């Protein structure tokens, strides 16, 4: 893929949807990073999701100065609802998403659009940087240049996380792929669910190795475990049920994803809550884990056999506390 080419005379419109909730500290940088894209034919949709700070005022300030900016506002209903409102009014040929506390490189949408156009791809994706509040790069999550052909092949690569991520904000999508698809109201795991559905409709996907998105980690990003985090399990289980009707042989891989979500949530539970709360939620997590552990077979089992994940899941299935102690010891000697 030649990423240095400019976009042809045909100038497709890209609708960039930004859900906004109490982001006044970060919002100007986010909006300006979109406005200053080298690719200019953008529709910037700011969806205020019931902010109680100055975010809505900031949105209107930018819309008054740039006709490409549209502002809509709603009562607080969550990021999925806000993104859906944006999708409902988007008029672009392509759709992109940016979170209101993040920002993007000046050439992100130009590079993603070139990848789509040159390869007739339904989706293009780039890597991303994780940064702190001083813009220091904490890590880079790069991918490899590549093309995937076919709905099944795209879905398998997605569930295996082969050269892709479960995120929506480092991608560009053909708008038609959203014709009958909308975000569900999960409080966690919404990106994972919708990409599972979208990839099953993706005839071709293009991937860029370069990083163009800046994902901000806040000083207070670590939040204690809460019941709403169980939505991540619900979303992953719904993905499993979806594959049962579409690509049944991918179900064991989807089960692995459910187990991974549960193990991560269990660590959060142990590290951020009191013993009483742990006693309340640990049985729920363990029961869900055991339900899917027994479904790991065939190629999915072989993909983790004798690897760290295999050992972790084996220990968790025997005794979650034993797994937790082993994982802490592993982190110390790693």
Description of the molecule:
This protein has 2 domains: 203 residues, Spore Coat Polysaccharide Biosynthesis Protein SpsA, Chain A (Alpha-Beta Complex); 107 residues. The chain is 46% helix and 19% strand. Strands 1, 2, 3, 4, 5, 6, 7, 8, 9 and 10 form a 10-stranded mixed sheet that branches. α5 packs antiparallel against α6 and α8 runs antiparallel to α9. The chain has 334 residues and is of the alpha/beta class.
Low-confidence parts: none
Main pleated-sheet profile: 10 strands, mixed
Overall, the morphology is: globular
User: How much helix is in the residues?
Assistant: 40-55%
CATH architecture of the largest domain: Alpha-Beta Complex
Strand content: 15-25%
Terminal Cα span? 38 Å
Q: How many structural domains can be distinguished in the coordinates?
A: 2
What's the mean pLDDT score? 94
What would you call the structural class? alpha/beta
SS elements, strand count: 10
Order of helices and strands: EHEHEHEEHEEEHEHEHHHHHH
Output the CATH homologous superfamily of the largest domain: Spore Coat Polysaccharide Biosynthesis Protein SpsA, Chain A
Question: What name does CATH use for the topology of the largest domain?
Answer: Spore Coat Polysaccharide Biosynthesis Protein SpsA, Chain A
Number of helices: 12
Q: Measured on Cα atoms, how large is the radius of gyration?
A: 21 Å
CATH class of the largest domain: Alpha Beta
């Amino acid at each position: 893929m030649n990423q240095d080419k400019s976009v042809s005379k045909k100038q497709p419109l890209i609708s960039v949807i930004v859900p906004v909730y109490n982001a006044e500290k970060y919002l100007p940088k986010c909006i300006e990073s979109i406005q200053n894209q080298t690719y200019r034919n953008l529709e910037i949709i700011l969806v205020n999701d019931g902010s109680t700070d100055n975010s809505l005022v900031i949105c209107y300030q930018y819309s008054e100065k740039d006709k490409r900016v549209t502002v809509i506002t709603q009562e607080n209903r969550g990021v999925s609802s806000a993104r859906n409102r944006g999708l409902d009014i988007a008029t672009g040929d392509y759709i992109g998403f940016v979170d209101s506390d993040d920002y993007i490189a000046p050439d992100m949408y130009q590079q993603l659009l070139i990848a789509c156009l040159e390869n007739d791809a339904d989706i293009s994706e780039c890597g991303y940087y994780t940064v702190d509040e001083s813009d220091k790069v904490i890590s880079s999550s790069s991918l490899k240049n590549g093309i995937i052909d076919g709905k099944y092949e795209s879905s398998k690569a997605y569930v295996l996380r082969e050269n892709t991520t479960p995120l929506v904000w480092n991608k560009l999508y053909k708008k038609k792929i959203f014709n009958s698809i909308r975000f569900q109201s999960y409080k966690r795991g919404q990106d994972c669910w919708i990409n599972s559905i979208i990839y099953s409709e993706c005839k071709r996907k293009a991937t860029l190795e370069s990083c163009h998105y800046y994902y901000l980690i806040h000083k207070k990003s670590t939040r204690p475990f809460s019941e709403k985090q169980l939505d991540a399990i619900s979303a992953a289980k719904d993905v499993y049920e979806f594959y049962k009707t579409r690509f049944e042989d991918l179900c064991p891989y989807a089960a692995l994803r459910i187990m991974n979500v549960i193990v991560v949530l269990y660590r959060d539970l142990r590290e951020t809550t009191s013993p009483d709360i742990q006693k309340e939620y640990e049985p729920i997590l363990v029961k869900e884990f055991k339900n899917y552990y027994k479904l790991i077979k065939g190629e999915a089992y072989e993909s983790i056999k004798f690897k760290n994940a295999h050992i972790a899941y084996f220990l968790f299935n025997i005794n979650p506390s034993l797994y937790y102690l082993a994982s802490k010891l592993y982190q110390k000697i790693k």
